[in-house]
Amino acid sequence: MIKIAPSILSADFSRLGEEIELLDKSGADIIHIDVMDGHFVPNLTFGMPVVKAIRKYTKLPFDVHLMIENPAMYVKDFIDAGADIITVHYESDRHIDRTINLIKENGCKAGIVINPGTAVDAIKHLIPIVDMILIMSVNPGFGGQKFIEYSVEKIKEVRTIADKVNKDLMIEVDGGITTDNIGKVVAAGADVIVAGSAVFSGGKVKENIAALKAEV
């Protein structure tokens, strides 16, 4: 089953609790939380206190995407704040195998993220041990960017490897997803779709989620 994971980066921050309750009631499957530190990416967003504060508004899984340097330093804090899945960028962690094990040892699902310019080959040996691979289909750091077309081939590559070594792997795609391209992304092998602008556009959250699911 395809899961829609709205990115709250596109939500109204002044009423974030209400926005999350609305997602819960509108057919969202996962809440995607983009954590940025102003170093790994040129933007700042949420920290642990915000994740902890919004945890009470839904029982949906929190998918915490760490776009930060030295992610291992903060893993335990984000888990304590309410994360259910933590994804870490391959490019930001020199000891990513250790970080994956740290996440799992603390009772959380672990994933690896790769930027558009990173080849699938770089992470192929890690695919058997993670719960999720997140393929960035835009360059990380900002919402509202255009989908990078060669991401589709990367999804296919990951799915081919996962079918051999980790059939339970979730393949998530983040960036530029719309009703026009979600079909080909899912056909390539993705099963968790992050969408920000496509969900929150026009304030029609329920209708927008339904429209995305209708295309798959």
Describe this protein with a few key phrases.
globular, TIM Barrel, 216 residues, alpha/beta, carbohydrate metabolism, single chain, D-ribulose-phosphate 3-epimerase activity
Helix and strand content put the structural class at alpha/beta
Task: Give Rg in angstroms.
Answer: 16 Å
CATH architecture: Alpha-Beta Barrel
What is the string of helix and strand elements?
EHEHEHEHEEHEHEHH
Arrangement of strands in the largest sheet? 1-8-7-6-5-4-3-2
Figure out the total of helices.
Answer: 8
CATH topology: TIM Barrel
Which residues sit in consecutive blocks of at least 5 with pLDDT less than 50? none
Average pLDDT taken over every residue: 96
Number of domains: 1
> What's the name of the CATH homologous superfamily?
Aldolase class I
What proportion strand? 15-25%
Overall spatial form: globular
CATH class: Alpha Beta
State the end-to-end distance. Answer: 10 Å
Major sheet details: 8 strands, parallel
Count of extended strands? 8
Query: Helicity, in percent?
Result: 25-40%
Question: Any overview of this molecule?
Answer:
- This protein is of the alpha/beta class and 216 residues long.
- The chain has a single domain (3-215), classed as Aldolase class I (TIM Barrel, Alpha-Beta Barrel), CATH 3.20.20.
- The chain contains 8 helices and 8 strands, in the order βαβαβαβαββαβαβαα.
- The longest helix is centred in the last third of the chain and has 15 residues, at 151-165.
- The chain is globular and about 40 Å long.
- The chain starts with a strand and ends with a helix.
